[in-house]
Amino acid sequence: MKKTIICFSLLAAAMLFAAACSPAAKEERPVQISAGNIKVTATDAKGGAEAVRAIIERERPVVDSVRRPLLGHAAKTHDKFRPESPLMNFAADALLHMARKKCPAENVDAAVTNIGGLRDIIREGDVTFGSVYDVFPFENTLALVTLDGEQMLQLCREIAAVGGEAVSGLRLVISADKRLLSATVNGSPIDPARKYVIATSDYLSEGKDKLFVLKQGHAVKYESMVIRDLMVEYITSLEAEGKKLDSNCDGRIAVEGR
Length: 258
Prior knowledge:
alpha+beta; 5'-nucleotidase,  domain 2; five-stranded mixed beta sheet; four-stranded mixed beta sheet; 13 strands
């Protein structure tokens, strides 16, 4: 009888990774993570499925204990879509707020992050560590990028060219064919003679996701400030103030004619 072999990544490595990122373990990050495969061999598909299911169920309580802690509450479901959306606006506003809080001497002007980095939505009701992890699963860290006025304009053009990204402190008007028509920073036109400090991720600071100009700026990366942890802190602070997570579309990226 032909044997069926099923291979999957070792769950223990994923749990170690997730536990190290939980609110209770921010200061205890692993120095090394290893993973491997377990071969599950069965004489038929049913046997293989049962073997896989048994391992998942064995490890589920540990994973659930990491995901369960309640951070806050969402007033409504925050979805993601271009040119702007409640989730995108929340992520960018929270990033700008936390960058200014953590780096007050840097005079951060605006924040930019990418819709592609938001891997899930935030649903109405309880916001747990697990739901935040689902949206921000990567180990991306805070980066502050300084751009001159022309580079700032180019960043706005590149945001327009992809149809919009998550921004805070910026307001853009773009055409239906994704050209930049106008841009302001904190209500003022972009000044070619001044410098602008942008809060973003270390990933985008390398010019990824077609935001090429960020790589041309001067980047300072804060490797100890994982963006997911900043989001956790921000949501927790909202809850402490009796506030719900409640972001809206406000026209910060407008498409002409819509």
